[in-house]
């Protein structure tokens, strides 16, 4: 993947993460935002903060790439790793909550929607970047 | 050597040669053991208000400003 | 015929020495302390071809000067105990600096074998090392090893056997240049007058150390027959200058060898350097760190839930089984209420602790925590704490016992003491059950925020205490931060799990010993004198509580709470179990009983949580504080300071909360 593609990719993810983060912050402070139920905002203030941080890393990469600075692509790569890492965190949390619901016998009432949140579904986009070049990046990183 | 300055003042990405280590006895020996001895080539990888991550050979060290001020480097060619 | 060979493992920090040690000795090891210092001493056994090896793992050092406790331990062992073979573990990806130590070992004239470790990493970087050539140049056997996969261990032991069997050992010396050599020669000549010294140490080494201004060696010479002449020679020179000169010569000698054994392959900028720019970024560094910490705690608390549910169910079943099948009733009560209930209420937090330690191990092994310590150094330094105090503080959220042990990586004595003293304010997971119970009962809608507030309060008190101690009892500044940034690595499951286990097992041991004893005492005090109702005001527990009630009455606590707090001294988890006992309800119906108690308001509950957060470290933590500080005075201080701070803050929080919520 060349730098232009990374720039576009980073810009899209950066904007999405920042938007989700801001909305989640608003949701946490003000309360549910009507019409946005489909985005599974959780009202978790810290979750919102994490979304903003990941978004900021992507956008810092975009800014550096646009300015032609060498390490711009690295910011986007780190953003991808963060996106996937937090996606995994949320996925594990989701599994744990599901298993727990099963153990205490509330399996019937439990649904994946209970644990759904932006960190989880935005990580699907992050995973795409990971598959495209993140893996090679990670391997190169630990070898050197 | 003309133009010497403390390591702490270098910007990220700058390379330099160690000119002198002006730390106390114990710290000096330790820095020598880590590779910061006169004539060693160092490169500042990250710099944040005097705290730096610097590479010496294949090793990377984080130094706080206090220590980085005690390592005096001659500014290599190109740099001021 | 069986022969014993004593091996000392030495090397720079972070070269995989401990991994290699574990691979060599397996489970046949013993961990203790070096006499007089808090440096861990690990010894282990291995065998090969009829030879028995005793392997001693020396602390990692960059050189063999004698300025830090680690260096003194390493040097004294090699010099005084004279192991048969010194194995230097060398990081193949960082040859130049590692060989500096080799030059010093060679001067000591001890038989050295080099374990060229992490050889696979060097090869993966396209920078393989011709270890046969290296061996020929150094005249030291060099064995290629990969500690993480156990490669090269047999070769290493074989080389050690060969070296131990041969009597031919070269003295490998570095030429320091005419002027220095003349000085060395005259010093060596002067030293030869001291027969005792000359018999024990190589003269050249003594002379070199004296030129470097080594106090330790000078002390050995002083008072001896060579003293006057040596001091006379030394008075004419500036040791600082010689030290720099000789370090330079050593590196020069290394630089001459390096191009012969590997291709020069210093990349301009490695990917890991670029990642460092991102994670230590001036603006993004700390937010990234906070986000990762949030992820760590999210995982700790959610992923642990099903495990906790399962453990809870298992203990409930066990308690029920005991109650139904054991005669007489008092024995059933002892085993069921006392042991199973008490130990169960502690073990239920095992998943929390293990998951937190696993995540910290992964972050540490990946190399990230070293970067985090670097970015946290600036804010911590401003508060008077060294940057390295940061990892122990994080571990403190799991359990203060391994956290206080982890302060060993801090060099300055004062810095270390300070970190130990403030560590108990980091809210360990043992305190969580108390918060969960009271926040859940009295603040059902804001339970999460209340718990969060307590964690933050703990951090604030730790910081404020550090500031206070710095300006009173431990004056001075935090020592400057020097830390090697290890290369990023993808942690292997095995090493991360081992790392987790070494810290988490301390908690299990605590549950098995101190806490078991503690709950037995609780049960006894609640059951006697003979004939009283279990946990009633007439029991010994009740009497103690009533005696202490005046002390805690200003905080709004009654005798039951006083008893629970006393027992919480054994382990803070016990507070909940004791209240269950004292309210005579068991833990399931305890929330209802607490709500029904007119003496407990929301404000009092908050004050109680603050008190539990801050008051004296538990017995296990105190044991470690005593061991690590080596002083009863500081241990006592820790108890007293914690109690005073807890009382004052609980009082203030209770009153302020009372103003808003009514009723204290």
From TrEMBL, chain A:
Keywords, comma-separated and alphabetical: Membrane, Transmembrane, Transmembrane helix
Bilayer-crossing regions: 7-26, 38-62, 74-99, 119-138
Annotated protein name in UniProt: Uncharacterized protein
UniProtKB/TrEMBL annotation, chain B:
Superkingdom classification of source: Archaea
One Pfam family from the record: FeoA
Record flagged with keyword DNA-binding: no
Alphabetized UniProt keyword annotations: Iron
This protein's record includes keyword Iron: yes
GO molecular function: transition metal ion binding
Domain Ferrous iron transporter FeoA-like: 5-75
InterPro entries: Fe-transptr_FeoA-like (IPR007167), FeoA-like (IPR053184), FeoA_core_dom (IPR038157), Transcriptional_repressor_C (IPR008988)
Protein name: FeoA domain protein
TrEMBL record, chain C:
Binding site for Mg(2+) 1: 22
Residues the record lists as binding Mg(2+) 2: 23, 25-26
Name assigned to this protein: Ferrous iron transport protein B
Residues where GTP binds: 11-18, 36-40, 57-60, 117-120, 146-148
GO molecular function: ferrous iron transmembrane transporter activity; GTP binding; metal ion binding
Taxonomic lineage: Archaea, Methanobacteriati, Methanobacteriota, Stenosarchaea group, Methanomicrobia
Coarse class of the protein's main subcellular location: membrane
Record keywords, A-Z: Cell inner membrane, Cell membrane, GTP-binding, Ion transport, Iron, Iron transport, Magnesium, Membrane, Metal-binding, Nucleotide-binding, Transmembrane, Transmembrane helix, Transport
Membrane disposition: Multi-pass membrane protein
Transmembrane segments: 283-308, 314-332, 339-363, 383-405, 417-443, 449-469, 507-528, 603-625, 637-661
Source species, domain of life: Archaea
Residues covered by the FeoB-type G domain: 4-166
Protein location: Cell inner membrane
Keyword Ion transport attributed: yes
GO CC terms, sorted: plasma membrane
Statement: the UniProt record of this protein carries the keyword Ligase: no
């Amino acid at each position: 993947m060349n730098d232009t593609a990374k720039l576009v990719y980073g810009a899209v993810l950066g904007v999405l993460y920042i938007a989700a983060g801001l909305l989640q912050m608003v949701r946490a402070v003000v309360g549910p935002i009507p019409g946005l139920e489909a985005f599974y905002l959780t009202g978790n203030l810290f979750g919102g903060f994490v979304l903003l941080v990941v978004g900021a890393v992507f956008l810092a990469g975009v800014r550096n790439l646009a300015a032609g600075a060498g390490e711009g692509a690295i910011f986007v790569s780190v953003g991808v790793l963060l996106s996937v890492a937090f996606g995994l965190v949320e996925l594990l949390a989701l599994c744990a909550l599901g298993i727990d619901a099963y153990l205490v016998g509330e399996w019937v009432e439990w649904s994946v929607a209970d644990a759904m949140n932006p960190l989880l579904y935005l990580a699907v986009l992050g995973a795409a970047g990971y598959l495209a070049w993140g893996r090679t990046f990670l391997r190169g990183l630990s070898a050197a | 050597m003309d133009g010497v300055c403390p390591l702490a003042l270098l910007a990220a990405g700058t390379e330099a040669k160690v000119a002198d280590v002006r730390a106390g006895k114990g710290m000096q020996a330790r820095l020598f053991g880590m590779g910061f001895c006169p004539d060693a080539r160092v490169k500042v990888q990250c710099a944040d208000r005097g705290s730096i991550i610097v590479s010496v050979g294949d090793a990377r060290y984080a130094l706080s400003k206090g220590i980085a001020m005690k390592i005096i480097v001659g500014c290599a060619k190109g740099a001021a | 015929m069986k022969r014993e060979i004593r091996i000392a493992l030495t090397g720079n920090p972070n070269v995989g020495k401990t991994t290699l040690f574990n691979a060599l000795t397996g489970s046949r090891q013993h961990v203790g302390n070096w006499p007089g210092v808090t440096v861990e001493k690990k010894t282990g056994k291995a065998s090969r071809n009829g030879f028995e090896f005793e392997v001693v793992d020396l602390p990692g050092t960059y050189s063999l000067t004698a300025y830090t406790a680690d260096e003194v331990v390493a040097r004294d062992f090699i010099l005084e105990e004279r192991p048969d073979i010194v194995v230097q573990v060398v990081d193949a990806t960082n040859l130049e600096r590692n060989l500096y130590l080799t030059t010093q070992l060679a001067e000591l004239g001890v038989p050295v074998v080099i374990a060229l470790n992490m050889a696979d990493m060097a090869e993966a970087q396209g920078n393989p090392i011709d270890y046969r050539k290296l061996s020929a140049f150094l005249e030291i056997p060099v064995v290629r090893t990969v500690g993480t996969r156990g490669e090269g261990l047999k070769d290493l032991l074989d080389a050690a056997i060969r070296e131990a069997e041969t009597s031919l050992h070269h003295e490998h010396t570095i030429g320091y240049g005419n002027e220095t050599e003349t000085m060395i020669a005259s010093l060596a000549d002067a030293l030869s007058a001291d027969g005792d010294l000359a018999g024990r140490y190589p003269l050249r080494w003594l002379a070199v150390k004296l030129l470097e201004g080594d106090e330790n060696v000078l002390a050995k010479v002083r008072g001896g027959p060579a003293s006057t002449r040596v001091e006379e020679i030394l008075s004419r020179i500036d040791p600082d200058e010689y030290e720099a000169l000789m370090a330079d010569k050593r590196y020069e000698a290394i630089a001459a060898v390096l191009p012969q054994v590997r291709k020069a392959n210093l990349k301009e900028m490695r990917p890991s350097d670029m990642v460092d720019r991102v994670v230590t970024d001036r603006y993004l560094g700390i937010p990234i760190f906070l986000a990762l910490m949030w992820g760590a705690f999210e995982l700790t608390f959610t992923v642990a839930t099903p495990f906790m549910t399962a453990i809870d169910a298992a203990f409930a079943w066990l308690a029920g089984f005991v109650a139904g099948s054991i005669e007489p009733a008092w024995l059933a009560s002892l085993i069921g209420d006392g042991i199973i209930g008490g130990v169960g209420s502690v073990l239920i937090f095992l998943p929390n602790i293990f998951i937190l330690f696993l995540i910290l191990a992964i972050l540490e092994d990946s190399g990230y925590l070293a970067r985090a310590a670097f970015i946290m150094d600036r804010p911590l330094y401003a508060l008077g704490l060294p940057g390295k105090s940061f990892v122990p503080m994080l571990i403190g959220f799991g359990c203060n016992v391994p956290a206080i042990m982890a302060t060993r990586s801090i060099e300055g004595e004062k810095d270390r003491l300070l970190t130990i003293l403030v560590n108990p304010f980091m809210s360990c997971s043992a305190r969580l059950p108390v918060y969960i119970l009271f926040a859940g009962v009295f603040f059902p809608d804001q339970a999460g925020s209340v718990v969060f507030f307590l964690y933050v309060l703990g951090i604030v008190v730790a910081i404020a205490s550090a500031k206070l101690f710095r300006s009173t009892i431990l004056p001075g500044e935090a020592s400057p931060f020097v830390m090697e940034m290890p290369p990023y690595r993808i942690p292997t499951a095995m090493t991360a799990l081992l790392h987790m286990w070494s810290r988490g097992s301390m908690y299990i041991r605590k549950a098995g010993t101190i806490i078991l004893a503690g709950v037995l005492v609780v049960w006894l005090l609640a059951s006697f004198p003979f004939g009283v109702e279990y946990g009633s005001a007439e029991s010994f527990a009740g009497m103690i509580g009533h005696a202490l009630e005046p002390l805690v009455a200003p905080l709004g606590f009654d005798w039951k709470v006083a008893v629970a707090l006393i027992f919480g001294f054994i382990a803070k988890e016990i507070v909940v179990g004791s209240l269950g006992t004292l309210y005579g309800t068991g833990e399931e119906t305890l929330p209802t009983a607490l709500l029904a108690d007119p003496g407990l308001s929301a404000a009092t509950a908050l004050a109680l949580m603050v008190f539990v957060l801050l008051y004296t470290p538990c017995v296990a933590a105190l044991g470690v504080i005593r061991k690590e500080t080596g002083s009863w005075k500081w241990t006592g201080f820790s108890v007293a300071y914690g109690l005073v701070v807890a009382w004052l803050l609980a009082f203030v929080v209770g009153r302020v909360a009372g103003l808003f919520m009514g009723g204290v």
